[in-house]
Design goal:
Order of helices and strands: HHHEHHEHEHEHEHHEH
Largest sheet: 6 strands, mixed
Radius of gyration: 21 Å
Strand order of the largest sheet: 1-2-3-4-5-6
Strand content: 5-15%
Helix content: 40-55%
Number of helices: 11
Distance between the termini: 33 Å
Length: 287
Amino acid sequence: MSVEALFLSERKKFHASLLESTLTIDKNGIHSNADKDSRVSREIAKHIAAQLCVEVMSERAAAQTSGSNFEGACASFVRNTFGQLDHIRPGDWLIQQVGGRNRRLIANFDQYAHLAALDRAAKGNRELAAALGNDYTITPDIIVSRSPIDDQFINSSSLIVDSSTAQQASLRSSNGGLPILHASISCKWTLRSDRAQNARSEALNLIRNRKGRLPHAVVVTAEPSPSRIASIALGTGDIDCTYHFALNELKLAVEDLDFPDAKEMLDILIEGKRLRDISDLPLDLAV
């Protein structure tokens, strides 16, 4: 009997968790990630769901509930896959789903610790708060962070650092540093223009407000419409890459349904290295 690849089995578990309550069909036969007013969206979502064997019929969950469930499923997938790559990307890693939209959590990490002082200053000064606006607000859905390393581990094979060297390096725990933010993952169950803009804004804030290494900034979505995926995936400079929850199934759907415009856009996104499958994400995070 052949052994199933870890990423394949975890991808199946990821989809199975979504089938329990998030990816469902309503009484009108419309799937929960589809836009009921778009034929292309409805048909592609239906085709993807058929491949994933969606059979649960229920009323569409509130957007907030679907989003939270999707975040949880994505966090579990990353935890179960990236967590197995220690031989490729060693480190003491923590993968967290950020609940309650905690805008201050980002200040717990080395590159963004200064934002706590900025937040305190803005609270005590209305003029400063008005000037800053939301330009420093960063609220990732999922974060991947790495703990600093103690000197004993760094020097385990030979004497590499001592008290006179590397006194500012964030990776060295003896310097009193905070955990290092490795990746910010934004999860969008569906994509509308405002959701795409929010993801871009948060990625740009990660870039502008960091002190030190830039974390990975990625988006994971279950949006069935390639044109809407393009609203976040096209272009460079903010998002590293966009990942689809079922890209293989999406590709087959647009081919079978003969939607030439959708297929052309999907090909542009994939060939342009702007859209990948969820199973690509763990190895990309290992870079």
